[in-house]
């Protein structure tokens, strides 16, 4: 008898203990949140995924805001607007607005937005935070997704609001580019003769080069007019491309490609043989060449007078390790005039 009673008591105690544990666990669960999660499974949603640096160039920095709308319904969601407030260093900077197009049934719609910040506008901010290597950009707003009439009774509303907020550090940049220490290297006589193949053509090439590179700054005219169109001779050039950041971030450059035109005519293309990243200044050493037989009248005029209107454009990759930007596309397009000795 005593053993049977003890067994019943043990079972009772175990049941009560499990019930108490279960109650304690239920108290930890927010039933309201569980209900909301279940409801959300059948509702449209707006998600701000990330804010990234899309491009840096000589006049502006461009951010990309990636977001998307999810539509679980079998019918389309009507189009709506996406409005954003943009704050930089806690201050209202600008607003952005774009259209979220109709989102088809049972589908997701990416909604990318580009934000462009001109350096002329950022320069005033730099003055307020001298020495700061980055700026904190905050993107915030509320998206209201209209609900198809058929589903409003289920959702309990004509639209759903989705507040969003995301921050991103951007480097403090005011980049510039210039050409330094430009020189053209005259080929030695043996190279000229080897390329020409005949003494007559070599003599014409030598005369043309002597005039082109003479201190007298007299143009020899075009290579075609000088009878050099068949000449396969490369003339080497050496110079430096200097990339400066007039703001405070330390930038590093790689994968640099350029095209240089003189007097609106294509002259040189290439990549640097060496890049020295020195913080707010990067020195790119270039050694490339141009075919003598294709020198036009315009190029000959520019080279002979050691001065020209130029355009330097191309692309590279840059990053600011101090703030962890990762690789960012960098594009440049600079026009002006320069001279050399």
Automatic annotation (TrEMBL):
Q: Note the superkingdom of the native organism.
A: Bacteria
Q: Report domain Water stress and hypersensitive response positions.
A: 46-161
What are the BP-aspect GO terms? Answer: response to desiccation
One Pfam family, short name please?
A: LEA_2
The UniProt entry, under Gene3D superfamilies, shows: 2.60.40.1820
Protein name, UniProt field: Water stress and hypersensitive response domain-containing protein
């Amino acid at each position: 008898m005593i053993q049977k009673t003890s067994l019943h008591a043990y079972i009772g105690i175990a049941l009560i203990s499990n019930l108490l544990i279960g109650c304690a666990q239920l108290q930890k669960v927010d039933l309201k949140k569980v209900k909301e999660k279940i409801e959300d499974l059948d509702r449209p949603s707006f998600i701000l995924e990330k804010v990234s640096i899309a491009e840096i160039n000589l006049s502006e920095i461009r951010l990309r805001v990636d977001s998307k709308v999810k539509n679980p319904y079998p019918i389309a969601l009507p189009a709506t607007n996406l409005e954003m407030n943009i704050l930089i260093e806690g201050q209202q900077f600008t607003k952005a607005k774009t259209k979220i197009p109709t989102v088809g049934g049972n589908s997701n719609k990416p909604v990318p937005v580009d934000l462009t910040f001109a350096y002329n506008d950022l320069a005033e901010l730099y003055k307020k935070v001298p020495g700061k290597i980055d700026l904190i950009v905050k993107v915030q707003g509320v998206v209201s997704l209209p609900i198809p009439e058929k589903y409003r009774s289920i959702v309990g509303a004509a639209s759903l609001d989705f507040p969003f907020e995301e921050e991103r550090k951007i480097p403090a940049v005011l980049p510039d580019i210039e050409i330094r220490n430009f020189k053209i290297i005259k080929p030695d006589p043996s190279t000229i003769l080897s390329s020409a193949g005949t003494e007559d053509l070599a003599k014409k090439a030598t005369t043309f080069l002597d005039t082109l590179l003479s201190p007298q700054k007299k143009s020899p005219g075009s290579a075609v007019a000088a009878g050099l169109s068949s000449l396969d001779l490369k003339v080497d050039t050496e110079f430096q491309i200097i990339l400066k950041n007039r703001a405070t971030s330390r930038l590093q450059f790689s994968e640099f490609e350029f095209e240089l035109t003189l007097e609106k005519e294509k002259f040189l293309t290439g990549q640097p043989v060496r890049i020295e990243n020195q913080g707010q200044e990067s020195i790119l050493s270039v050694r490339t060449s141009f075919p003598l037989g294709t020198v036009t009248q315009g190029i000959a005029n520019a080279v002979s007078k050691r001065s020209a209107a130029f355009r330097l454009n191309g692309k590279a990759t840059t990053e600011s390790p101090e703030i962890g930007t990762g690789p960012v596309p960098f594009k440049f397009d600079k026009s002006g005039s320069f001279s050399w000795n």
